[in-house]
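Narrative of activities, Objective 1.

The group set out to show that a structural description can be obtained from nothing but a protein's sequence at a throughput compatible with the screening campaign. Below is one input-output pair from the validation batch, recorded exactly as produced.
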Amino acid sequence: MESITKWAVAIKKLNSIQPTVERALDLAQDGVPGPVFIEVPIDVLYPEEMVREMFMKESGVKDGKNLGSKALELYMRGHLYRQFHQPHVSIVPPLRESLPPKPSTKTPHVDKVASLLRTAKRPALVIGSQALVNCRNAGPIADAVQALGVPTWLGGMARGLLGRASDIQFRHKRTAALKEADVVIVAGFPFDFRLGYGRSISSRATLVAANLSSSEMRKNRRPEIPVHMHSGEFLRQLAAAVNGGLGPWSDWFDTLRTRELERDEEINEQAKAPTDLVNPLQLFQRIEEKMSDDAVLVVDGGDFVATASYILRPRQPLSWLDPGVFGTLGVGGGFAVGASLVRPGKEVWLIYGDGSCAYSLAEMDTCIRHGLAPIAVIGTDGAWSQIAREQVPMLGTDVGTVLKRTAYHEVGQGYGAVGLLLDDPSKIDATLDEAKALAASGKPVVINVHIAGTDFRKGSISV
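Output recorded for this entry:
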């Protein structure tokens, strides 16, 4: 586990359990967040007398009378004494990467970037999940971004940072904008496939990247100005440095807004297309209108979730939870439970693909036992559509991508939730209203939506 975690450790003494777990929790959240691995052998968890009896019996020491048996018994008694009575000795985790110190004063790069923005004609800002790392109050970061006034695209768990609507936020045509921009600031977002490994950004642009990880910041595309610090803090310092003296970039905003409106209109037209089952675009447009202002969105899936990201708008910061860049399907159930506990009484919408829901739909049992009431919306098209979109054109076969249109609403009922079947487009509003009322009364809901296939995401790839 060492190669894929920030720290991997085996606990060998009873007194090490608490301090090791506490250290692991701190380390997982510190700096660049990441997983830790703790191995806890069961003989550390069982009572000392029980373990001693087990050791002596299994080793045959109890029945031995010779010198070897007595030596083994002496060794095991010493081992067990250390295991249950020795004090904890602190273990210093290996340093995977030097982290930037928390700035007490303005970072040197800030004034340089501020000068760039003052002379920029087509600036662009891309903000990723890392901008909100260890952030309990995103308000100051949102205020800083709004004060900068730069055209902004949000990704990952930064979605919702600027609320449901902002005059500087854009959701479409990011690649086209980055190809034309003369100054690009990438804050807490790696140069991975979502940014074309950096190739989506014009080679003529001055590229600024702020990241907690100095190595991630330089992978695939090296920025002209690398800023090794928390990207949220960098944005706050940058806003203070420019002090509102930017823009207005009227022509640039006009170009971007025209593209935004054109793409929204394309989506509207596709949402109106008649289908034998439910059009997923129409479904998400209705969810978007009906979600409460305090709603939390948990998304767990491929094609269905990617479609949702074009339409659903988180209402506030820290209100969008997804499987992350590696697409770790199965997080939805746990995330929905966590969101429901952290935000009691608020609407929690869990958007599932029919493939991904099977990983964690059983958490409806958890919701029943703990009085939680998320609304799970399962887009059932009988396929791993995100995989099929790439595989079928490339290999000419759908093998391994075909699923049944399982009665997931009945599965939810089996766990104690209220199950609703939605297979008629004319019943979208009524079904969503019923689900909201049920959730408000404290009952978790599973809506099994039989969706029609669309070409909305034709050509998208899964890796």
